[in-house]
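Fold description:
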Amino acid sequence: MRAKGTLKSGLWPLVLLWLAAHAVVLALILGIKFVTAKTLVLILMAGTAFWFLLGRRKPLSLPAPPVAGNDAHA
């Protein structure tokens, strides 16, 4: 009877280690999937904000209309 209890108590650390290893693998897989998507979105948003705030040298506008002279109807 004592050997069976010892065997059970000896397996618990292995079972917990097996579960922990699988939890780590699952967390890595899901972390790579979701953190990468979030990171890409954040980088894209930060790049857009940086471009709007600092990247443009002149304001976006339409070019000035050409000066109309006598040859405008030609």
In short: Residues 2-55 form the longest helix (54 residues). Residues 22-53 form one domain. The chain has one helix and no strands. The CA atoms of residues 64 and 70 lie 19 Å apart.
